[in-house]
Structures are given as C-alpha cells and as structure tokens.
Amino acid sequence: MPPHHPKHRRHRAEHFPSSELDRALASVVPDPSDRAFILRCVLEEGPAHHRGASFAILRALSLAIERLGAPSKDLSAIPTTPLAIRLPPHLAQTAEDNVYPIGLPMRALREALGDAELEAAAVDALCDGPAHHALANAMMLWLVEAILSRVETSDEGPAE
Q1: Centroid of chain to Cα 106
Q2: How would you class 56 by CB atoms within 10 Å of its CB: exposed for 0-12, middle for 13-18, buried for 19 or more?
Q3: For 93-124, how does the pLDDT look when each residue is reduced to its tens digit (9 = 90+)?
Q4: How many Å apart are CA 25 and CA 21, to the nearest integer?
C-alpha cells in the first residue's frame, strides 16, 4: 500500500485588498470605474494562483513606489501601445470598444530591449492571454515606469 500523503492545503485569500493598488494606478488610469474594472479583472478573475501571484507582485511594486516618495514626473507623457481586448475574429470585426482602459507603456521596454523585433515580440506576449494576464502585465509595467521615473529624478539631485 502506498504511503499516505496529507492533502496539500493552500491558504488563499478570499479577497485581495485593492486600495493600495488603486492608489498606485490612479496616476495612470484617472477614472475610478476604469480602475475598478482593471482591478476586478486582475484580482477576482482567473485561477486563484494567478490572482495571488499578480497581487503579490503588484503590491511589492507599489510598496517600492511608496518608499521612493511622491511622483516625480507626469507619466502621461510616456508613449503607450493600446492594450487590445483579444476577441474571437467574428466579434472583433463588430466590436466598437476593443481596447482596455489602460495602455501598455513602452519607454522601459524600449530601453530594456533596445531592438524593435524584440520589442514587438514582448508587446505581443504581454498583451496575449485572458484579461487578468494582459491587465496585470500592463499594471506591472506602469509600476516599473513609476519606479524608474522616481529613481531617475533622485539621480538628478536638487537643481542648483
């Protein structure tokens, strides 16, 4: 008889708190109902392990932003690529609203990858998949942009 293995118990939060993430996202997505939609997709849709992983990474990034202090630059000037909603072909042709209310920021990707072909492949990968994947990816990149912006400003030092 094989040995008995106790069931693996996973402790999962029934609901991940979104207030800190909402604040971190406010400078990029000013409309509260758009932010609520994005956060609902990321934190309440899809498999529990995706929701938990996304929450943990997004919260860690937002904590880094909090520790770096107040926003240093207006992030709205960063170039973006629209984050298209992946619809079946027969629906995509007739859909009027086929983009999410958040774009994919491109500055950090361009700096990190430095190659148009790699950049295009990265954008395809980041935008692909169900809403909870694509939106979490966009949020993570925006939080990275906010961190880089704050770090760049702190590197510049006070004006003389």
Answers
A1: 13
A2: exposed
A3: 776 778 999 999 999 999 999 999 999 999 99
A4: 6
Closest CA to 154 of 94, 85, 65: 65
- The pLDDT, as a whole number, for residue 19 is 92
* E strand segments, the chain: 80-81, 104-105
Locus of tokens 């004006």: 159
Distance CA 25, CA 81 (A): 17
Say if residue 78's pLDDT is above 70: yes
* Domain extents in the chain: 19-156
Beta carbons within 10 angstroms of residue 65's beta carbon = 20
pLDDT in tens, 37-69: 999 999 999 999 999 999 999 999 999 998 988
Is the Cβ–Cβ distance between 52 and 100 less than 8 Å? no
